[in-house]
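User: Please run a holo structure prediction.
Assistant: Happy to. Please share the sequence and the ligand.
User: Here you go; the ligand is MRU.
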Amino acid sequence: MADEKQGYPQYPIEETLTVFWEDGKVAMIDQRILPETFQINYYETYEAVADAIKAMVVRGAPAIGASAGFGMAIAAQQSTATTVDDLRTDLKRAGDVLAKSRPTAVNLFWGIERMLKTADDPGLTTVEQAKARLLDEAQQIAEEDIATNQRMGAFGAELVPENATIIHHCNTGSLAAVAWGTALGVVRSAFFAGKNVRVLVDETRPRLQGARLTSWELKNLGIDHAIIVDGASGHYLRRGEADLCLVGADRIAANGDTANKIGTYNLAVVAHENNVPFYVVAPFSTIDFRTPTGDDIEIEERSQEEVTRVAGHQIAPEGVSAGNPAFDVTPHRYITAIVTERGVVRPPFDVNLRALAAAPVSEA
Ligand code: MRU
């Protein structure tokens, strides 16, 4: 399976892509209703794409980045501008709307900015040419995401010992990206490389991305796993029954502090206490060098009903209030390494992340 030219294994993608372009529409797997129902939703306007991101039809930082790309592409198709400059104005407006959908995953802003930069190319002279170029760019973002994940998978798989039990938080699989996945992509790569792996899947309250989505993906792949409640990870770690933790990231600050799904910080601290390696797996686009530390990352606060209700059923006393930060920040001192498509970065992260950013990007 190894691709000699690229120097890392590439595998076919068997499943439907999480987000893709079809017949002039943005198509997304509706992640709110999995695993009971597999349904593709189609969106014809950037406003509808922004709403879908906000409602978490699509979620996971890389998938949100690709959705932003397609959202901008559909904004270009929607536009009635007759000059390229007017099209650029319409795109800026669309970018502002998309940017308001979710605040924490930096890939959203990265995707929008990349599309705006594409639109700014002075070589674009006609509206039709610009629209076609923007759609190409969105497609390229999506294709790059898959290649990026497979590269991270190959780097990360080397860190996974034979017969490893892995604790995983949230969903970082195919559904969190265009395909393959980040941290779960590492699990997938290790599995396809012939390693015997077992995953302890944090259920990931309150939206249960672990129990609903990660478990669904692992089951489809035939990878051994068990769902655990979020509070159980410490138990397994203290008893020496887990060999490593793998998580994704929604934003990595310049010093390595990492925002990820709520509960990640707790897991990292307990892993550290028990000398278990804690790896963050994320594409380079998740590293935000404009954000110096984790304290500078905006944390999304979601609705109280996500906590007081389970699957639509009220479980708390009526009228009680709930706190619902969707993410937390893990200080970099708890992170053993950050796996990117450019390689594995170890501390000191402030120095080594910048060094990797400055290094020529190797295809090998
Ligand atoms: O709120 P979500 O489901 O969009 O959050 C996604 C996560 O936090 C994931 O755990 C992931 O690590 C980031 S994307 C691979």
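The longest helix spans residues 127-157.
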